[in-house]
Amino acid sequence: MLFTESSAANARAAVHQYFADGIGSFLDGKVVPGAGNPIELTVSATGESFLTYNDSGLEGAQAVVESSQRGAEIWAKTDPFERANILRHVSAAIEDHAEELAQIESVTTGKTITDTRGEMAKVAEMFAYYSGWADKLFGLTIPVPGDWHTYTERVPCGVVVSITPWNAPAFTAGWNSAAPLAAGNAVIVKPSEFTPVSTIRLAQIAHSAGLPAGVFNVAIGEGSTVGTALTTDRRVGKVSFIGSLPTGRKVSVAAAAAGIPIVLELGGKSANIVFADADLDRASDGAVAAIFTQAGQSCVAGSRLLIQREVKNEFLELVAEKASRLRIGDPLDSETEIGPIITPPQYDIIRNLIQTGLEDGANRLTSDSLPASITDSVLGGGRWVQPTLLAGVTPQNRLETTEVFGPVLGADVFDSEQDAINRANATAFGLAGAVWTENVSRAHHVARSVRAGTFWINAYKKIHVAAPFGGFGDSGHGRSSGPGVLDEYTQIKSIWAPTQATGSPFPSLNY
What's the pLDDT at 157? Predict the structure, then answer.
């Protein structure tokens, strides 16, 4: 059923099908309603209210941590081969419920059903991938001076808090929980207060697939209440955060004050560099997909388009024409390519930043008029922004370094290879980027020179759980995927055993 047929009824039905008594935090295998302030959720495609729930509050957050402490003790003692087996079952259960999760995600966030179906397949893949690592975490035997058998063990951090954003709630819940679970930790996911539903349902499915009570909990509510409580609780062993730079800094400071280590994945202002020798048709497809998929609500969005001067006009025409053909509309229609803006605050931010870019001298090359299929239907009350291409976004334009997090592409020219590299690096962010060229040497030189955690050559926006992902500079620190992320969620313990009974039991220390 489409939004145009039933509006917010879809969202209400999706919630009540699985949460007859409303939503709340998920702990000890059940949903527990909060007792804090009410939070209203609206359908981004129509602007209508569909659900009100209560913030978990400080007491609710503490109850989740207590549950997770118990879960962490059980899970850490679980045989690693059994942990691997359970995580494989979780992956299979997510596959079985993939369409259901995709529908929930689409109707409650406004993400297109095509995007959410792809994301749920990825979530299942995450648990499958890390299930293979659960029984392969081992230490080392280390030769040291004297009669000692010295070895290391990798032990879990205990309780891991994962704070996830509103732009991809179920995807990031899987991305930031599969690895710590494989390493033997209990996980608390704190989703955005705007988009909690799919994360709670994901936890239900994981629990039904065999995860013990308390091992995968969800705490819902606002960052100022639940988020603050979780990231300052000394019983938490690690925090991972995905979100904006300002919020990430606040969370990082609060966690540091409590002595809790943190992994940060923050924003980006990624450069998409197009040289004159590139396949311009393919590169323009890449430029459009890099920024306009997910309505630009993606941390790796290619929001800065840098074009070699001699092909500027031709390339901008290609991008503008292809952007104008993108289908914007009902998220539940499988042919829709651009959905609405998920949250009311972000909608206002995007519109204000477009105006800022124009005031700073940029030229709009795409229409700002919504199609009649939106304005003349129930969708007219939604939070819609047309794909926007702004040319002439120079270093003096505030859009050059300001993350928009919406379907807004700022374009400008460069003359030389070094000029392109300098422009790409002229930002405090360093999350992603790309280069389009037929020159192999140039491609690798640019890829090596641009300061970014992920960089593509003649492609854009390809990621996989097996490859490291994270940023430089203001885009965060630490990596949230790949085999190396297991180091983030384990601690190294050194164990010393004497191999001779003779000698002093108090050897000299030389550290």
Answer: 98
Mean pLDDT, all residues of the chain? 95
Cα dihedral sign for 133, 135, 137, 138? negative
CA atoms within 13 A of residue 105's CA, in its CB half-sphere: 29
How buried is residue 358: exposed, middle or buried, by Cβ count under 10 Å (0-12/13-18/19+)? middle
The CA distance from 200 to 192, in Å, is 12
13 has a pLDDT exceeding 90 = no
Q: What is the pLDDT of residues 356-387, one digit of tens each?
A: 999 999 999 999 999 999 999 889 999 999 99
Number of H helices, E strands in the chain: 18, 22
Contacts of 396 (CB under 8 A, 6+ apart): 360, 361
Phi, psi of 51 (to 5 degrees): -165, 140
Calpha distance 43→347 (Å, rounded): 13
Q: Are 323 and 334 in contact (CB under 8 A)?
A: no
The residue type at 35: A
- Coil, strand or helix at 27: strand
The residues, ordered by sequence, that sit 6+ positions from 197 with a Cβ below 8 Å of its Cβ are 14, 15, 19, 23, 51, 104, 108
Choosing from 193, 265, 417, 488, which is the catalytic residue?
A: 265
- CA distances to 50, 103, 157, 229, 330 from 239, rounded to whole Å, are 31, 29, 10, 12, 36
What whole-number distance in Å separates Cα of residue 25 and Cα of residue 35? 11
299 noted as active-site residue: yes
Residue type, 491: Q
- The pLDDT of residue 428 is above 70: yes
Return the pLDDT at 16.
85
Of 336, 296, 290, 374, the closest CA to residue 113 belongs to 336
**CB distance 16 to 197 below 8 Å:** no
Q: Which of 193, 299, 337, 488 is catalytic?
A: 299
Q: Tell how strand 490-498 and strand 148-156 pair up.
A: antiparallel
Mean pLDDT of 481-504: 89
- Secondary structure in 3-state letters for 128-185: HHHHCCCCCCCCCEECCCCCEEEEEEEEECCEEEEECCCCCHHHHHHHCCHHHHHCCC
For residue 151, pLDDT over 70 is answered with yes
pLDDT at 7: 58
pLDDT at 6 (0 to 100): 59
- How much is the pLDDT for 11? 80
417 annotated active-site: no
pLDDT tens digits, one per residue of 173-221: 999 999 999 999 999 999 999 999 999 999 999 999 999 999 999 999 9
DSSP letter, residue 310:
G
Strands 476-477 and 262-265: antiparallel
Query: What's the average model confidence in pLDDT over 114-126?
Result: 98
Give the DSSP letter of residue 498.
E
Residues pairing with 185 in the sheet: none
Give the Cα-Cα-Cα angle 97, 98, 103 (nearest 5 degrees).
100
Is 239 strand, coil or helix?
strand
**pLDDT at 12 (0 to 100):** 83
